[in-house]
Amino acid sequence: MLVDGMIGNKAVLLALSSLTTGNLNSKMQKTAKPFRMQDVLPSTHEYIVPPLSEDQQREQTNKQLLAFVAMKPGSEAFLKA
């Protein structure tokens, strides 16, 4: 279990993940999928970013599905209804 000290491990992990992902993403091609914190430090991701509740998961899923459907050309007519 990680413990926040006077300075805080959380602050150190946030800085480390920010620097690491920024460094890795700067060396990648523009078309490649960017690295995220959970890709670089998966074991500490849940500590820093708490898991979503069921309602938040449903809402996030709905937003992702709407964004996916909206990418299709001509989908505006279906989304307005």
Plain-language structure description:
With 81 residues, the chain is an all-alpha fold. 63% of the residues lie in helices and 0% in strands. The chain is built from 5 helices and no strands. It has helices at residues 9-26, 37-40, 42-48, 54-70, 76-80. The radius of gyration is 18 Å and the shape is flat. The mean pLDDT is 80.
Architecture blueprint of SSEs:
Elements: H1 9-26, H2 37-40, H3 42-48, H4 54-70, H5 76-80
Q: Report low-confidence residues grouped into runs of 5 or more.
A: none
Tell me the number of strands.
0
User: How many angstroms separate the termini?
Assistant: 49 Å
Number of helical stretches of at least 4 residues: 5
Helical percentage? 55-70%
What's the gist of this structure?
By secondary structure, the chain is an all-alpha fold. Helices cover 63% and strands 0% of the residues.
Keywords:
2 domains, 81 residues, single chain
